[in-house]
Structure formats: structure tokens, C-alpha cells
Amino acid sequence: MTMEEWEAKAPLSEVELKSVAAVKAASEKPTLPFQFASDEAGPSRPSTPLARVKMAPGSRPSTPGLPASRSQPLGPTHALHPKQPVQTPQQFYDWFALIDRSVAHSQEAHFRQHLLSVSEHLEMCDRLVDRIEQVDREVDGMLEGWRSVEEGGKSLQDASHKLLEERDHLVDLQEAIGTKLDYFQELEHATRMLNHPGESLVLQTDFLYMVERVDVCIDFLKAHRHYREAEVYLLRFQQCLTRAMTLIKMFFVGSLRALTQDVSRRLAEKDVSQTAQMHLLYTRFTTVSTQLAPLLGELERRARAHPDALGALLAECHSAYFSARKGLLVGRLTEEIRGLDPARTELVELTRAGCSYLKQLCTDEFDLYRAFFSSGKDMLYQYLENLCDYLYDDLRPRILHEPRLTALCEVCTVLQALMVLDVPSLEEGYNDEDEDYGELNLNLDEPKERGLGRLHIRQLLQMVLQDAQTRLFFKAQSVIQSEIRYYQPKPEDLAYPDKLIAARKPVTGYEMREKESISQLFQLSSLDKRETWFPTLSKTVWVLSQLHDFVQPAIFDDLAQEAVSLCRMSLSAAANMLGSKSPLDGHLFLVRHLLILKEMTRNLDLVQRDAPRGSNDPYGVTDTLTNVLSRTTNLLPNSLFASFGMPRGDDMTDAKHSIDLDLKQACEAVIALLSDPVCTPLRTFVDRVHAHQSSAGLLAAQQWARQPVAEALEADARAACQRDVRGGIARMRLYLEDRRTVDVLVQHVRERVQDEYGAFREVVRNMYAGALREQLLPDEGVAALMKDVAEDPSG
């Protein structure tokens, strides 16, 4: 073993290292021979024996052995000193030999001392090695013992851990078995409680807790059907649950029967006030509900979880409740309806009073039912509908035989007012985008509420509203057929333009309010003189205004299409009758009424319901004439079709398209009637000149082509502008009233006159010379003349 391995395996402590360092330091200074130990301060090399001899001060050291002074005798101060004076050579040799041995011994003393020290160190090292080997053997023994103890302790620890794990497993297994056995042991507790006699069992505090535990056990056994006898215990637990729910049903039915008998007896007494009746019918029941509602809630919750087994019990509770409430309310309800006197009361008032009473009654019944139950919504509404049938049986025949359209509209208004109050607010979680409350069919989705939610009165009034809407629809059809399609105009109906002149008087406040109400619906701009309308147009507007808020949009569109088409045909027939006397009055009459009819249909938006009402679309009244008449001066039907972007021929079957076609034809006729007195003679002259020139005849020889004839023709054209065109434009302003509309038609009249006069001027200038050329008006002059003719004298 090397020193490095030794030092690595046997490290020394700090105290041991200090001891070794001290030994090392001591061994570096060897001790002097003992005979010189007293002279520790002397030189390291031993002196000669003569140096040991004490000399007198001042004696010479080079002469050893001689006394420095004879007066000082030599004393025996050292062992080498002769005891006797040397007298013979032999004595001297002996003494010298002694000195020589002493000197030799003195010179080797430190070697011997060092050797002795090294020997001692070696002995000490040997002893240390022996001790270290002994310690190593003891350490090896201790290590071996520790290893044996470690192995034994580890095996003991492993055995202990295994025992602890087995113990924990057994404890967990015991707890798991005990926990699962608790579900089975609960059957005994439930059976013992259910066997307890008395109806007050359901009122005990432990009863509902027991029912909850049974419910938990049923769910557990259903999830662990593989357990031994799980099916048997499951069946027994279900029987316990059924027995518990049966006890709740029996207690509820018994309590309800006793309460009903007591309330019936009290109501049968004389002079029971209205307040007392409300107290007996609702307050008493509400008080009892505080005790019964928790039990019924448990029954409802279990019936939802086990509908096959417990649904019948809940249905019996519902039936018992509705039977009890119906028995208490029917007599009072029939008495209230009898007090309304359905046979004599006016229909609208009967609807308002009866439906308001039913709404309040249904609200009270709904709130009372909700105090007991949180399910059975369908049965509840069926019960409320049965209560409403007592009034509906008298109300429906009156509605189905009501001849007045206004009365039917008021009935719909009353019903819708009650239904609109049923519409929930946005704070209650309803989506306003999914419910169109403006559409009066009220096809609202059911609110997504938990339990019963809130009462929806619209579901109870829907049948009566549908009856009223159906009767209103058929009555409106009858009015459209009798008063629009088959209407025979009276002489005063065709008294135009006298009616327009007479209508310029101030209107009363009532007439103004009536016009404003209709204008708000149809957004018409020509309602300031509604009394000048033809009766069929007034009737169409009135019927559609009545129906607009009371029938479904699709049905209203069909009915409005029919009414507008029949109104248009009646206006065309009346215009033909009026045109037989005055063609211009007939066409202006038709343009006036078709503009109003078109504006009404545009705002009703029969074709494109998604367009915003009142917008300036291309089919507006003034915009229509502007877009159509400003694009062409030759208002032929085909050009008008193209300008409106509409199909041609038989494809135009829609009412709006038919109105557009009739309106364009009437506008063309008005423009022609206003411009023909000026344009026809000029166009005839120009056509004859062109025809004669093409035949290569002599134009100057013709009587009609002479210059005086052309001069007279030009003068007549100016006179016709001042007379006929001015008068026609004034008549147009009287009929159409709207300045923009008049300006659109006048612009086309001016353009046609300017075009015909310009063609005439070109022909005359090529034919004649002299003063006639100066007499003809340039384009600016014709424009100024037409502007003066079309000037509105009223400003």
C-alpha cells in the first residue's frame, strides 16, 4: 500500500495532524550528548578536552594543560581531569588515551543520539502502524456489522411497509364495503319509516331526507347492477319511492279536498263581499301552498326522473287541483259573463270587458298554480282555455256575424292591445330580432324559461283573434268587390275640374286629423285634398288602412294586390267616361289618381318588403316621371318599358307594373294633347313639303306652299301656344298640384314644341326669302316663348 492510499483510507484529524507536526519539529533538532547537556549555548561542534580546563584569565590557550598561574591550583572540576598529577609517561599515555576516547566518543555522540531518535521514531511508527491496523480491523468489523444491521433493518422496513400497505388496503376495502353496504342498509331505515302510521308522516323533517336517500340509493344501484342482489334491492327501493310519493299525493289531495269543501261552504253563504271571495279563492290557497309546495316539488322532481313510475301520481295531483279550482270558479265566472249581457252589449265593448276580465282571471289562476306547481304547463293552459271558452262561446258567433268592418278592426285592436302587453321586455332575455311584434299574427316563439315562466295571454286570445281576422278578411273582400270593382260612378263623382276648384277652401280640424292619420300610414304627399279623390280610390285607401295592422303580411299583400288592380281598372273606366267630354280632363284625372295610387303602393311596398318605407326609390311619384320623361321625347310604350327597367308584354301581371304602364300612357297622352295644337299643323306642313320634294314636283306652284300660308301657319302656332298650351298647363296645375310633377310634364311639352318649330323653321328658310326669315323665331326665342307660356301666374 502506498502512502497516498494510506492517507486516503486513514485521514487524520486536526489534532493528530498537529501532533505529527510537533513530532516532526522535535526530530529536526537532535539532542547533544548528555555530558554536554549543560553547555547548551556552546558551539555545535564539541570542543577539545583542553577547552574544558578552566584557565586563569590571560592564560594562553595554545598551551593546554598548563596552569595559567602557579598561584592558582588546578581543582577537580571535570571527570577527565587527572585525579593525580601526571608524573610518568605511562600516566600521560593513559590520560591521553582517555582523552582520545573521550574526544572520539564526543564526536560520535550526536550520531548516536540521532540514531537513537530515529530508532525511537521507528518504534513509534511501528506502534502507530500496529495501532492503525488494529483500528482498521476494528473499522472493518464495525462496517461489516453495520452492513449486516443495514440489511437486516432494510428487510425489516420492507416487511413493515408491506404490512402497513396490507393494513391500509384492508382498511380501505373495509370502508369501501361499508360505504356500499350503507346503500343497502338504507332500505331498512326507509321501510321502517314508511311503515309508520299517520298522514302527518310527510310533514316530518326526516321524511324528505329519507326520500332523498332513497333516490340516491336508486341511482347507485342502477349504476352498479352487477352487485349481488342489486336488482332485488333496486326494486324494493323503487317501491319505497313510489310509496313515499303516493303518501305525498294522498296528503295533497286530502288537504285540497278539505280546503275546497271549506271554501265552497263559505262561498255559499249570503252576502259574501268581493274582497271576501278573493280572500277565500286565492289567499287561503296561497297560505296552504307554503306547506304543500315543497312536497309537490319533490314529487315533480322525481316524476321528471321516473316518468313511467311517478308520472301518473303527478297527473292525479294536477287533475285534482284543476277539478277543485274549476268547481269553485265556474259559478262565479258564468255569473260575471252573464253580467256583461253578451246578447245586447256592443261587440267591441263586450270584447274589451270580457277579455280584460278573463286576462285578470287567468293571471290570478296562473300565479296561484305557480305557487303549488312548477310543471304541467300544457295542462294549465288547457285549463285556462276551458275557462275562456265560457266567454268565447258567446263572443265568437257575434264576431263571425259582425257586418261592420270598423267594428271588426276595433275588436282586433282590443285583442292585440291585450296581447302586446304580454310581449316581454328585452331585460327578460328575449331576442327582439326573432320576434316581429308589428306583425299582427303574433307568431312569437316560446320563451326559454325554466319551469312555468310567465303567463302568455296571447295563447289564450289567439283563437278569438284569428276568428276576427278571418271575418275581417272576408268582409274586406266583400267591400272591395261591391264598392270598388262593381262601383257605378254618380254624376257628382265625375264633376271635374269643378271638384278641384271647390276643394281649395280651408279644411276643418277633424278633416286635417283624418288626413294626417292616413298620411302617416301610407306617407302620401297628395292628401291635402282627399275629398277630390275618386270614390274607389278613397275606398281602397280606407280598406287597406283598416287591414294593414290586422292581417298577416302575406294575406295583406294578396288582398292589396287585388284592391289596387280593381281600383286601377275603375279609375281607367272613369277616365274614359270623363274623356268622352274632355279628353284632357280625362287623362289628367287618370294621371292624378294613378300618381296617388302608385305612391300608396310604393309605401305599402307590396313587391319588395325589405326596402325602407318613404325612401326615394326609382319608383317614386315625381322621381318616376323625372326618370322616365327626361330620357326621351318620344314616349312610346317600348321606350317607357326600357326606362323603367320593366319586362314587356304579358309578363307585367303585377299591380304595380300595371299602374306604371297606365301612368306612362296617360302622361304621353297629356303631353300630346298639350303640344298637338302647336305641333300638328307645323308637322303636317313639313311632312307635305318633304313628300312633295321627294316626288320631284314644283313646290312653288302649290297653293298650300305659298309664303302667306306659311306666315299664317307660324302666326297660328304662336297663338296656339298662348291660347291652348297656356290653358292646358293651367289645367294641369289644377289637377296635379305638385309643382315638380307639373314641371316634368311641361318640360317635355316645351321640348316637343321646340323640336317641331325648329324643323318648320329650317324648311321655311330653305323655301322662302325676305321678311319671313326675320319673322321666324330662333331657338332662344321659342324657348323664351314657351317659358312665358308655362309661367305660373300664381307664382
How does this model look, in words?
The protein has 795 residues and is an all-alpha fold. Among the domains are: 473-672, no CATH class; 674-789. Helix content is 70%, strand content 0%. Helix 15 (553-579) packs antiparallel against helix 16 (583-604). This is Sec34-domain-containing protein.
From the structure above, extract its key features.
mainly alpha, single chain, 0% strand, 795 residues
Largest sheet: none
- Number of discrete helical segments: 23
Separation of the first and last Cα atoms: 139 Å
Shape: elongated
Report the structural category: mainly alpha
Helical coverage, percent range: over 70%
Instruction: Evaluate the radius of gyration.
Output: 67 Å
Tally of DSSP β-strands: 0
Strand fraction: under 5%
Low-confidence stretches: 39-75, 423-450, 517-527, 606-621, 627-653
Q: If you average the pLDDT, what whole number results?
A: 76
H/E series, N to C? HHHHHHHHHHHHHHHHHHHHHHH
Protein name: Sec34-domain-containing protein
Could you give the topology of this structure?
Layout: H1 3-9, H2 14-27, H3 89-194, H4 205-223, H5 230-267, H6 274-305, H7 307-340, H8 347-372, H9 377-400, H10 405-420, H11 458-485, H12 498-502, H13 509-522, H14 535-547, H15 553-579, H16 583-604, H17 621-629, H18 637-644, H19 655-694, H20 707-736, H21 739-767, H22 771-775, H23 779-789
Helix pairs in contact: 3-4, 3-5, 4-5, 5-6, 5-7, 6-7, 6-8, 7-9, 8-9, 8-10, 9-11, 10-11, 11-14, 11-15, 14-15, 15-16, 15-19, 16-19, 16-20, 17-21, 18-19, 19-20, 19-21, 20-21, 21-23
